[in-house]
Design goal:
With 314 residues, the protein is mainly alpha-helical. The chain contains 18 helices and no strands. It folds into two domains: 113 residues, no CATH class; 146 residues. The longest helix has 19 residues.
Amino acid sequence: MSVIYLPEDSWAASSCVGNQQRDSLARFWLAAPDDLLPSLWGSPLGQSTKELVKQLNANSSFSDEQNELRNAIGERLKAGFGSPNAIQMLLAAWLFSPPGLMKIANAETVLPNWLIQDYKEMYELSGEQIQASSAPSNINQEFNPEASNSDIPDPDFGEFPSTLQELVNNRIHLNRMLGLANLYFIDPEDIEIRDELRKLRLDLASLIEGCSENELEALWSTDLGDRFWALVRSGIQKEENTGSEEEWKQKATAALQPSNGGGFGVPGAINSFLIAMLFYEPGTMRVDAPEQKLPGWLLLPYQQVFAESLPTGG
């Protein structure tokens, strides 16, 4: 039996920006009818959505429910923008996606014409470019793509934290982790995103290895845990490993094998298990009797991500 959502608070398009009513707008877009989407986007509802998106930055934080919604939308959008309600879901996801942390490959092809310019202004163009794109153009002006691109500064995320404890308190890199994982999930053919995510995975593996096993549960109860599982779910593990990636994978695997003096119950085993999940595709790694070997905070997500993806034997 389906449950109809009954709102508890009223909201208005004219005040949702000032009141930060992102959730109300997201629910609206998810329920919007296909045939009215262009006119709705051109209304104060679309304007409010754009203003709320432009307020976001790499330091913006979101609730667990908002992160779950964005991740669920990312999962659905894997089917492509031709799937039912894809544009509605995209508009809802934008409310929780800071500019600079989302990129749609071939946007001119996959997005409707009425949405392309707004997408570019929010997620691809800098402030100076937006002004230039709306200003009258000179008839004799030549367009030089290389010169134009050279004026676009690369985002400066700062150095990657040196410990997991520092990472937990670094909103910029936490959001970058989530953004890269979601972008790769949506478009695994984007070479730049793929390479950034792979480098971040190596950095994260190093931090996990150097962390005290006793601190992992507390750390994984923060936004770091959400980012870790987003990376694991992204599918980056299907890429052919480089030499350093294979070393990490084999090192973690060996630490979990009793024949090598490792295995669960040995100090550092949970660290190695977390690292292993960064390099094994869901469905390709099995833990026998996980209820006995894994701590409670790790058991359920392991079952959801890995065990439920394991092929059933006949």
